[in-house]
Design brief:
mainly alpha, 5 helices
Length: 111
Amino acid sequence: MLPLKLYPVLINCALLVAFGYSLVSPPSIVERLARVTDPILPPEAVIYCRRVTQVWCAFFVFNGSVALGTALWASEAVWSLYTSVISYLLMGALFGGEYLVRRRFKRLHHV
């Protein structure tokens, strides 16, 4: 059962590696996604995209750590609740929060 419980940990590690690598080998993943809709980004937007990529890296560290902790030390019910519900709610909250911050950023920087 433990290998199955470690699957969410591995997914978070893979995403952390991908997002983290894009920080040391620009452009960042978020910048690449932003350039799909707007190929010409001002320098402020590039910096913002880099910061958002860093936030996602922190999220993957946190989420993967909690998933690991629940896999090793919590009941199957707690592990299942976290990995099937809570982690997705947190991810959705991060998406939604970033969307609101991005709208404000665009308004303030005329992007």
